[in-house]
Design goal:
With 98 residues, the chain is α+β, with helices and mostly antiparallel strands. Helices cover 32% and strands 20% of the residues.
């Protein structure tokens, strides 16, 4: 249980660690995914207007990441883009993908 305590510590929750520390329920992630898949509107609510959704996914930037030793592509909104598949999203350190 010591590892779980660290994962829930204020220090880790406040840190921004790429691809390794999302704090959300499965239901919350599914709801967020529904908004993103529907250009910001789902369940009769809009959290992001369609124009902003396109800006969020636009302007892909290619940069070499020396930490992982590979070329990465992210949009202005911080969404990862995989050129081979056309996939937009976030890929996790342990192999997860959202």
């Amino acid at each position: 249980m010591e590892d779980l305590a660290f994962n829930n510590s204020e220090g880790l929750r406040g840190a921004e660690i790429w691809s390794s520390n999302v704090m959300a329920s499965a239901r919350g992630l599914a709801k967020f995914g529904a908004y993103m898949a529907n250009k910001g509107t789902a369940f009769g609510e809009t959290i992001m207007c369609e124009d902003q959704w396109y800006k969020f996914h636009g302007n892909r930037n290619e940069k070499y990441d020396y930490g992982i030793g590979a070329l990465t592509v992210f949009t202005d909104g911080g969404v990862g883009y995989e050129q081979e598949t056309g996939y937009y999203g976030w890929s996790g350190y342990g192999g997860s993908s959202f």
